[in-house]
Amino acid sequence: MAGTRSRPPEGRRRASHSMEAVLTEAVALLDEAGEPALTFRALASRLGGGVASIYWYVASKDELLDRATDHVLGGVLTAIESQTGSDDPIDDLRVMAVTLFDAIVVRPWLAAYFMRNTDLQGNSLRLYEQLGQQTLRLDLTPRQRFHAASAIISVVVGTAADLGQEPPPEVLDGTVGRDEYLGQWAERWRRLDPEEFPFMHEIVDEFEGHDDKDQFLAGLELTLAGLRLQAGA
Amino acid sequence: MAGTRSRPPEGRRRASHSMEAVLTEAVALLDEAGEPALTFRALASRLGGGVASIYWYVASKDELLDRATDHVLGGVLTAIESQTGSDDPIDDLRVMAVTLFDAIVVRPWLAAYFMRNTDLQGNSLRLYEQLGQQTLRLDLTPRQRFHAASAIISVVVGTAADLGQEPPPEVLDGTVGRDEYLGQWAERWRRLDPEEFPFMHEIVDEFEGHDDKDQFLAGLELTLAGLRLQAGA
DNA sequence: GCGCAACATCGAACGTTGTTCTATCGTATC
DNA sequence: GATACGATAGAACAACGTTCGATGTTGCGC
User: Fold this and answer.
1) For residue range A42-51, what is the model confidence (pLDDT) as tens digits?
2) Thinking of the domain A15-57, which architecture would CATH place it in?
3) Minimal Cα–Cα distance from A76 to chain B, Å?
4) CATH architecture assignment, domain B17-57
5) How far apart are CA B141 and CA B118, in angstroms?
6) Separation CA B105–CA A158 (nearest Å)
7) I want to staple A109 with a disulfide (CB 3.0 to 4.6 A). Which of A35, B87, B95, B106 is the partner?
8) Chain A touched by B223 (CB under 8 Å)
9) Spatial distance between the Cα atoms of B60 and B44, rounded to a whole number of angstroms
10) CATH 1.10.357.10 fits B75-233, yes or no
11) What is the pLDDT of residues A27-84, one digit of tens each?
């Protein structure tokens, strides 16, 4: 059983030179080449140590990813906490959502693991609390507040995961620009039967050369508008 | 290069006894025990054949998952197409979104791969088209229609992925009921400092014994309300 | 009926992954 | 100096996706 083994200090970390190094280097690997790049062997090589040493700090790869996400979420949290305090709680909600979105969209691996992590604790819990506190300033029932905060998280994470996925290799290599890539899809859709796909023809021009951030902001605004309506403001 | 190799008929499938069998059995494996259960060896064993035979139908595991998702999306699509035709396009949008949500929430693997799949084609494209066609009946600009359809997809997929994740083993085994599991989290949150976590205390009662479906519906309603406001109806 | 090409299948092997086992350092404390 | 413990690491294991080479199986021109 893994629980009986002694572990490094969790709550109060003493020296813990390496726990920080492990997490930092793990995040660096994830940022540089995505989730599949984070292997215990690559990580050990970076740290200049053996493979099994990492298991002294984390019990499994799942825990490694858990701690890595919590690590970067700590940075997001401080960024979010320093941006509240507007007159309008909905404005605060928007700023917080955008900050979270920006952090996730550059780290596709974060979105994927953000949703797999059912445990609401640590910095993830704190982030949820920060968002929810803004709903306390709105005229809503507890149930509505619960739903509102959850909905915003879903919109942010869902959109970020949808838009922030790893671009195909030909775009990353620089051989094909982002505009060309979008153009290829647009071209394909333009060749569809207009009678069977009227909507695709309607939006293909908008799609070509669209901005991911704008798309997210528009979706977020729909939710916030609905929320404002619900609060009767 | 993989593209030069001959492949089974894609567009017009002739006999294709086994392609159907491969996909059906792959989906069955995914449904029974989640994504990690789908291995080439387990799948081959189910099909009563060898491991390498599967590579005659799909070039990689990624393609296997692509085809599997497209397979089940086909069922969702027919269910959705038979449910449109209301007076209110927003009512239609809600029904379609709920149908899609229900299909995803019982298949956590679908949500995970739904977002990883950047290729908008096949049944995924048709589904997007069906949703978008409802926005054609609303008084919106093409850009607003593009954003609206994308936002709804994000809300559905994001929420389904968030709520439909695999329950922990102790719940699956039946040793701990869902209510007890929720209760344990509620208990943990009640022990938090009320001054630092006022929101968690506000919603902990709502969380305990909440229904995932209601949570999704509430979030969807916010987006739809914002959309209705935007359309000026 | 024959032969050849394409379809379809399969066992064995390769390289990589997460994980475990066991042995070994270094350093405080008695 | 002996001991216990924090910390490290090499070697091995099982399982995974994938590839290779060989072998059936079918369809069609002659």
Assistant:
1) 999 999 999 9
2) Orthogonal Bundle (1.10)
3) 18
4) Orthogonal Bundle (1.10)
5) 25
6) 14
7) A35
8) yes
9) 14
10) yes
11) 999 999 999 999 999 999 999 999 999 999 999 999 999 999 999 999 999 999 998 8
